[in-house]
Amino acid sequence: MNVFLRKLYHTVSRLLGRIAYHRFGDTKHILLVAHNALTAEYLAELWELLQHDRRLKFFQMIRTPSESPENRLRAEQLLPMTALSQRAVNIRPWDLVVMADHPGPMHILADVRLHPVLRIPHGISDKKKNGANYYYDPRRMRDETGRLRYSCIFESSHVSRLTAVRADPSLSDVITVVGNPRLDKIAANIAQRGTLRATMGLSSVRPTILIASSWSANGLFLRIGDALFQQAQPLLVDFEILLRPHPHLFNSDRSGGRDWRSILEHLGAIGFRISNPDHSLSDVLAVADVVVSDDISSVSLYAAAAGKRLVLVRSGSTAVNEDTCNIGEGTFIERLGHIVPTMENAAELRPALDGALGSWPPPGFEEIQREINGEPGRSTTHIRNAIYRLLKLNEVISP
Fold first, then answer.
1. What band does 1 get if pLDDT is binned at 50, 70 and 90?
2. Over the range 66-96, which residues count as b (16 or more CB within 10 Å of their CB) and which as e?
3. In the predicted model, is pLDDT for residue 326 greater than 60?
4. Using an 8 Å Cβ cutoff, are 386 and 152 in contact?
5. Which pLDDT tens digit goes with each residue over 13-32?
6. Which of 367, 375, 285 is nearest to 326 (CA)?
7. Residue 240: helix, strand or coil by DSSP?
């Protein structure tokens, strides 16, 4: 089908869909578009803030993932609402479409001429890809005509917003700083840290070390995992060590050809704690005394924003090199790499941990912490207000 016929088909389909699905009443229909289980986690956090408002009805569409059936099942569990096919969502009228990644194959839905489109982050907007900040990459944010795909973009950092607007002034009225609900949850969980540790069966004496990996070839577990686990095993006498894989490592096409379920099962049998992706990251970060993570993982930024002692593992990835995403000083990760303990290889694990367990925080750390989350403790209010503005609704109505 050529481009003209494809556009004609979609135009006619939408017109018929609007007639067939015409709604009476004031209920607003919101579509949550998940690319995989990871993005579904962030969409679920937004849904949890709004699910009790009787004026809103939520639907989900999960792109059929090529990775694994488990990935789709996890996404469906996170978004327990009416599920629709990609064909169905393309023709129905929506009051709001929400995505936690750039649209990719769902680009037909990211059309602000049809309905408001909200982009929320799946992590912290700090990672570079192909020389640009992935979150604000114009090649991903705009369609083939240059039109912005989003009505609103959520951001946690005033600094990151200012940088993006300086690069593209047209984003001034689009980017809204709402804080970060996951960071707010981590802060609340830290206040209940003792109870959480007891629930997780953690020792009250030994410090807890969280070792978390990203998923690319430069990610911690794929790059130096075997050597790292060997170096960490003798430390089990002094520490509780939690291993946290990225969920993509369980997908066959992103696992580096390895069976990470079996690997982690073996490591659990010899004394490591395993924090699978379905375990709450907010809980795990709250109980950790030190976080060891690579410089391409959002876990490192969550840890820093939560004030956690951090060891940054250098990946050598171009997602970190040549960074200039934040005002004059590089990205948050690049700046953290100059002030927190770092390691290049597995043999440096113990010295890096000793450094992190020493005097803390290092100079400049608290400044970065404040910049990452510009609205601490206020994300729920900001997110609700922003979505009600997009929906043209008044204040929340209690159930």
1. low
2. ebbeebbebbbebbebeeeeeeebbbbebbb
3. no
4. yes
5. 555 555 455 555 689 999 99
6. 367
7. strand
The H-assigned helical ranges of 21-135 are 37-50, 69-78, 86-91
In this prediction, residue 316 carries a pLDDT of: 82
Angstrom distance (rounded) from CA 218 to CA 223: 6
Determine the angle formed by the axes of helices 181-190 and 379-391, rounding to 10 degrees. 150
Q: What is the pLDDT of residues 246-289, one digit of tens each?
A: 888 887 777 778 999 999 999 999 999 999 888 899 999 999 99
CB within 8 Å of 201: residues ≥ 6 apart:
none
Sign of CA dihedral 160, 161, 162, 168: positive
67 falls in which pLDDT band (50, 70, 90)?
A: low
DSSP 3-state assignment of 96?
A: strand
Q: Residue 156 above 90 pLDDT?
A: yes
The string of pLDDT tens digits covering residues 91-133 is 999 999 999 999 988 899 999 999 999 999 998 987 777 778 8
Dihedral, 344, 346, 350, 354 alpha carbons, nearest 10: 30
What is the DSSP pairing of strand 128-129 with strand 132-133?
antiparallel
8-state DSSP, 210: E
pLDDT at 179: 97
What are the b/e assignments for 365-374, b being 16+ CB within 10 Å? beebbebbbb
What distances in angstroms separate CA 163 from CA 19, 159, 298, 322, one per listed residue? Answer: 43, 6, 19, 16
Which residues lie closer than 8 Å to 129 by C-beta, 6 or more apart?
Answer: 137, 319
Rounded Cα–Cα distance for residues 331 and 334 (Å)? 5
Calculate the average pLDDT of the chain. Answer: 88
* DSSP H helical ranges for 106-219: 138-141, 158-167, 181-190, 193-199
Which residues partner with 342 through β-bridges?
A: 312
Report the Cα–Cα distance between both ends of the chain, in Å, rounded: 48
ω before 361 within 30° of 0 (cis)?
Answer: yes
Cα–Cα distance, 196 to 88 (Å, whole number): 42
